[in-house]
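Need residues for this backbone.
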């Protein structure tokens, strides 16, 4: 097993498997297979015949997953692509419905720990941040070097919930051209002083916001949730692990909405929307890692898990 797979620690692993409830004979989708940590646990829980389809936009991650999941042989199918296109990608392989899906959102440890990918502010590297480095989409450098100050401020405000978005955007524009992660960190530090040792860097929200914008992460999540009801068989489980309040809010609102029979305003005496519930919540509230897991894996600290079952 490659070193990257050996050090990969799946977040909220026990809670994810409990919520997904894999069983022998089922077919499951890991929409963000990464290095294969959650996928391996799903396959073990669904032994001896359960199958797993793993998607990822990152070909390097797929190679890591392929090596890790090799012992499961034909029970695994790995596909290069986004979970936003899950229905179409599965249909191409003759799969119309599945018994469960897991999404572990955000950037992976493999991506963070590869400096040349440009996701981490801890290394001075090319400012890329694309989940799929072969995709014909703008890099983080392209975005920050061409967008207006107003557009950059809107990205930082919307995706990073950064209260000093306008000041940071102005500093970014003044620092152009930005070519490396170090260039972006220095621009941020002109507005926000470096954090004391052991504290979260002030660049964290900025890097997060730019990454989300580059990869269209919220749009991809919305596109997948729109497909979820048709993709899952009755009794199938939807499990989502998020690391950002905006993603968690999208999932929470989706489950709340799709677990109700009527979406009409309370003042209306008769339902006019004809909406019918398609899911029931499995988790009453977001599941969070305990202190022991955070101590083992500090990157788990902001994880939130929500789950629902297809009616």
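Answer:
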């Amino acid at each position: 097993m490659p070193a990257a797979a050996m050090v990969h620690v799946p977040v909220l692993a026990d809670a994810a498997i409990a919520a997904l409830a894999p069983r022998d004979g089922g077919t499951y989708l890991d929409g963000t297979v990464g290095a294969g940590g959650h996928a391996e646990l799903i396959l073990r829980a669904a032994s001896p015949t359960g199958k797993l389809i793993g998607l990822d936009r990152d070909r390097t991650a797929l190679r890591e997953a392929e090596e890790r999941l090799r012992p499961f042989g034909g029970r695994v199918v790995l596909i290069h692509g986004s979970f936003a296109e899950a229905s179409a990608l599965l249909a191409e392989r003759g799969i119309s419905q599945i018994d469960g899906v897991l999404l572990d959102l955000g950037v992976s440890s493999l991506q963070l720990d590869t400096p040349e990918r440009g996701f981490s502010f801890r290394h001075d590297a090319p400012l890329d941040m694309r989940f799929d480095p072969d995709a014909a989409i703008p890099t983080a450098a392209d975005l920050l070097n061409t967008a207006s100050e107003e557009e950059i401020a809107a990205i930082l405000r919307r995706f990073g919930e950064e209260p000093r978005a306008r000041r940071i955007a102005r500093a970014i524009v003044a620092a152009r051209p930005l070519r490396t992660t170090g260039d972006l960190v220095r621009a941020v530090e002109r507005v926000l002083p470096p954090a004391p040792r052991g504290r979260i860097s002030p660049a964290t929200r900025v890097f997060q916001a730019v990454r989300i914008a580059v990869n269209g992460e919220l749009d991809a999540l919305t596109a997948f949730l729109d497909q979820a009801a048709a993709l899952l068989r009755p009794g199938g489980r939807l499990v989502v692990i998020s690391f950002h309040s905006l993603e968690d809010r999208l999932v929470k609102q989706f489950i709340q909405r799709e677990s109700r029979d009527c979406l009409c305003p309370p003042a209306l005496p008769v339902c006019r929307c004809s909406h019918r519930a398609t899911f029931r919540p499995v988790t009453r509230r977001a599941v969070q890692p305990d202190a022991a897991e955070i101590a083992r894996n500090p990157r788990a600290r902001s994880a939130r898990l929500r789950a629902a079952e297809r009616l």
